[in-house]
Amino acid sequence: YLNVDAGQPIREIPSTLFGIFFEEINHAGAGGLWAELVSNRGFEAGGPNTPSNIDPWSNIGDAKSVLLVTDRSSCFERNKIALRMEIFCDSEGTNQCPEGGVGVYNPGYRGMNIVEGESYHVVFWIMSTGSVNLSVAFTSSDGLKILAASSIIASNSEIQNWTKKELILKATATDHLASLSLTSSKKGIIWLDQVSAMPVNTFKGHGFRKELAEMVADLKPGFIRFPGGCFVEGQWLRNAFRWRQSIGPWEERPGHFGDVWNYWTDDGLGYYEFLQLAEDLNTTPIWVFNNGISHTDQVSSSTIEPFIQDILNGLEFARGPSNSTWGAVRATMGHPDPFNLKYVAIGNEDCGKQYYQGNYLKFYNAIKLFYPDIKIISNCDGSSKPLEHPADMYDFHIYTSASNLFSMTNKFDRTTRTGPKAFVSEYAVTGYDAGKGSLLAALGEAGFLIGLEKNSDVVEMASYAPLFVNTNDRRWNPDAIVFNSWQQYGTPSYWVQQLFKESNGATLLPVSFQGNASSKLVASAIRWKSSESKEEYIRVKAANFDSSALMLDISITGLPSGSIRRLDSKLAILTSNNVMDENSFDQPKKIVPIAVAMENGGTDTSFPVPSHSVIFMDLPID
Ligand code: AHR
């Protein structure tokens, strides 16, 4: 049986222990958490990166009635490309336009989710050689039904120069795979640029897709690491994420082609929005910045100074007073108060590279000089040998099989108790065991997380990777949250993270197995207080990696007798018939923790633990 000694608390678990890692991979942000419906809103994504130079925009009408080309006429200096739409047909004369007009449409990220009763904010920039009457509509996937429509009527004097137009479209019908169309039946030339469509209703009103942000908020993350991953590094430095290019008015952002995960991002979800998201989730931001190193090229330590200044500017943007140079830019964007940025990571997975140590030290010294309170995370693994440079924390990444990860429950047992703490900033079961998110993967992860909880004196933070996948563009398997334009569900790995969310800031209690304990059974216990009910609980978690079921008898010692209300205790089990089972859009809750009634209302201390399962039990304390 399992004994929990509630009288000998071990330590308070860091309030940051379990958090999230957001990377722009799998269209996690563009076409995902960022609620922008238009893909390639500035017509900038073309060139060698996409099949057409305005992809995924396309024409409505044939070559005799409309011609779409791009030119460099935009009024935005950092993204000069605009769409030039020449309409040959007219509502009068011999070349009559077809009913509904001709023009251009954008299907978003493989379909826009337009929902009856919801309102959408459409913004675009327009210029023309004459007057215009432009219809703006959301249309059904077959193009036959108008879901929401409005129009812009403007005289030539009004739009002979670039002019911003805004509309609110309210949907009268639903289609999950809709498009946005801009059409006219009037001969002439219209230029369009920076076309955006956002649902009016977003998470905290800051542009995040509500259902996805709520799934993240539900994890009560202790931190958010962003924006990558390899996304930060780039295959080549020229394609790395640059904070400076991702701030300011969205129309002026150049966007960039992420060459590691191979897609364009308009960078509507930029550095400012990540900081805002952290604030909206009431969590701690961790900014991973490019340190002059990509997968292919590197800036030498003797020439890294401009990159360092750029990062210092980025820190001033986040934390400086609103009258500082970069703090003022933040204030203009709507956030006069500094953001609570206290952690940065210098690069991602770059430790072994030629200039890492040299570049790292230069970034480290400069940041500590101006921001001594900022905690700095190194890419070098300090779990088995000391780091060669100063650091507050070190990254530890692990992607492996389920049995390996489960057995790594002891990974940090022998790590030195002095020196920088571990940030397990990426962990997951991958490969055959994982499929697209199996129960088996979640079991391996549960065993590993139990070990991290026990070693939370040397492990300060941990996050699963990747967080999101849009099923229309899977670049990595498995992931925690799966979605398309309108549906979403958590994989079993997501649900395992749910079981650990109350551990942040809780008290770790010692557990010991008595008798013949299986090496495939690991457990931990915490004492935690519900912020909602203010009740205190002991939570016992156990992961059974074995193919046999067992009986578990839980005894709690060290508390005055009668202080545990066994009758009100709750038991839940995460399991399935087959270890390779997965959740899906059709069965999103096939594998989730299921409450199990306990015999004799919980007064029986012993209960069956199924094979291949994770159990958790909450026992209220008076
Ligand atoms: O999580 C996916 C990728 O795995 C990350 O971008 C990278 O850091 C790691 O190699």
Describe the structure.
It contains ten helices and 35 strands. With 622 residues, the protein is of the alpha+beta class. The strands form seven sheets. The protein has an eight-stranded parallel sheet with strand order 3-15-18-19-20-21-22-23. A seven-stranded antiparallel sheet has the order 2-27-29-30-35-32-33. The two termini are 24 Å apart. Alpha-L-arabinofuranose binds next to loops. Keywords: Glycoprotein, Hydrolase, Membrane, Signal, Transmembrane, Transmembrane helix.
What secondary-structure arrangement, pairings included, does this model have?
Blueprint: E1 2-5, E2 11-12, E3 20-21, E4 58-60, E5 66-71, E6 82-87, E7 102-106, E8 112-114, E9 119-128, E10 132-139, E11 146-154, H1 156-159, E12 163-170, E13 175-184, E14 188-199, H2 210-217, E15 223-226, H3 230-233, E16 256-258, E17 263-265, H4 271-280, E18 284-289, H5 305-319, H6 325-332, E19 343-346, H7 356-370, E20 375-378, E21 393-400, H8 402-407, E22 421-429, H9 439-454, E23 459-464, E24 468-470, E25 481-483, E26 488-490, H10 492-500, E27 507-509, E28 511-513, E29 521-529, E30 536-544, E31 550-557, E32 570-574, E33 594-596, E34 606-609, E35 613-621
Parallel strand pairs: 1-31, 3-15, 15-18, 18-19, 19-20, 20-21, 21-22, 22-23, 24-25
Antiparallel strand pairs: 1-28, 2-27, 4-7, 5-6, 6-14, 7-13, 8-13, 9-12, 9-14, 10-11, 10-13, 16-17, 25-26, 27-29, 29-30, 30-35, 31-34, 32-33, 32-35
Helix pairs in contact: 5-6, 5-7, 9-10
Bound molecules: alpha-L-arabinofuranose (AHR).
Residues 23, 25, 228-230, 348-349, 426, 465-466, 476 line the site of alpha-L-arabinofuranose.
GO molecular function: alpha-L-arabinofuranosidase activity
Domain Alpha-L-arabinofuranosidase C-terminal: 425-613
Family: Belongs to the glycosyl hydrolase 51 family.
